[in-house]
Structure prediction request, 654 residues.
Amino acid sequence: LLAALVVPTQRRGGGAEPAADTGAPPVVAVGLVADFRGPAGGASRPLTDMLATNLARVAGVQVISSARLQELLQRSGAADTVAGSFVGAARQAGAGELIDGTLYARGDGTLRLDLRRVHLASGAVRAALTVEGRDLFALADSGTAQLLRGMRLDAPRGSVADVTTRSETAYRLYTEGVRAYYAGDLATASRLLGESRRADSTFAMAALYHAVSLYSSDWPAAASAMERASVLAERASERDRLFIRSLRAAGGQLPELAPLADSLVARYPALVEGYYFRGEAAQIGGDYLRARPLYERAIAMDSLGVGTGAGPCITCSAMNSLIGVLHAADSLPAALRVARRWVRLRPDDAQGWSRLAEVLGRLGRWPEAEQAHLQALTLGPGLESVRLFPMFRAYRKHDFVEAERLTRAAMGIGTATQRTEAVSTLTTVLRYQGRLREALDAARRYHALQLAAYRGHPELGTPPVNTRLEEAIVLLEAGRPLESARIFEEMAAAPRLVGQTPAGRLRQRAWTLSHAMTARAAGGDTAGLRARAGELEATRREAGLTHPHYRHYPAGLLAIARGDTAGAITELRAGIASWTVGYSRATMTLARLLLATGRPAEAVAALQPVLRGDVEGQTLYLTFPAVHEARVGAVGAIRSPQPAAAAGDSAAAH
Prediction:
């Protein structure tokens, strides 16, 4: 997801030239700058990016970023050393004009840059100009000023170096790294971008691209680079600053994403990422109905940006998130339509086929799901979702013996990280079978393995707080709630991780405290429950958390403690943002209250969507067998015929 977002995409305008008297800002792209300096050549890409970045600093012109053009060139297979290649890419990106040029070295050591503005619809040259300077930065600044003068706009203050880097070496390595990134060569990209950062440690965009090139191979280093990019964004251009910080906030699911996304949309309405980030912000806040049209708008704006292959694709990220919110809204048929559209637009994308297989599996259409999985396996055998599909299938079919076999096999293959995570999965598999003593042993083994791994890498600091999560869950299920509560509270008090933002740590603390409240309530510790509720409310306010869970779930538990069943039902309902992927223990608590107050049909309706949820995430805290068991009692308590019973929802079935 993070990698796919670094595609500064523009709204397509069909290549039409804005009329001069309408006031519509021109949409321009900077194409090839041919380098004729002989052995000293090779400056084309840095100079192209400098001009595009500098022009974008002015409010009266919309500029297709050089990264966006590079992405389109890579998808089409066109060479970025041929001027004609940029014409097609610029048109596809929605530009009305293309700026290109030639670079020469003069005998006195200075440089000359010839530029021209070409109207893409007609091919006519609208303007031609020449500038001279001592280096590439001077050429970019002078060229920008003259281009803008021809558009009757003022040049930006200062130099492009003020918002990028003053090192030509760093800039060259950066542009080469971005090129490798969009070509799908992440190893080369991370190496070049790391060298760029070493040449200039203050280059914000180099840090950003270095982060996204590392996410799949070295998460701690990627998180550290992203945090550094966020700090450096203060000296970047406004567009780059908003984009960097929005990307960081989206990755960390931080509340500040909403105002950042609003600023992106207001200042740069042609950037599809602004609407995508708005959708992410709504989803983080649990507002799935609002998120849906925002993702759909991003998809509509970037419909030409899908292309072929399986490289970075903002539309794919939007479709992936849209499938997620439709699942959260318990609208699997709509999610299936999105997944089918994805594979129709990008038939070579393993991720799209993997998501299609998952949605079909949730709908119980297993022959079709298996076919989609086979296609995903052919296209991307190393993709994590593809690799984990057999486990997904075993869970959905309630074949926990097969799930255990797959998990134990995974414990002996793959990377050290994958083998360790398989131990964590074993804990869940054993929980699903009711083998809680063995599950507790597996949970503690997982924690020990994580401690050992982090001891071997002291630069990573302390292990993530969730290394004891499974242990706490098992203890709660085993009837040892106060022991569980103490672990949750230790997790809540743990220090911030390397690369973790302060806001991210607050969000994690709030989530962990809500689990501590669950355990305290289960243990009948009313005083401890109230204390954790106070800590959670203070953390919620400090972090600016808007998700309804953090406001209403604590209130529901406190209402139960004081005997206010009606109030508890109201609060618990209000705190469930999704009936499929919401906090499953909150749903179970609500269902038990409904059953106790003689409302079994409502209890059945509350529990049924949980079975269409996930094994991980917010539904990790309750097993499917436990939901089935609860529904046996709820269905059996319904005395009159109900629509659910007519559909075969019987106690015997569960």
Strands lie at 27-35, 62-64, 97-105, 111-119, 125-133. Residues 502-522 form the longest helix (21 residues). Residues 1-22, 642-647 have pLDDT under 50 and may be disordered.
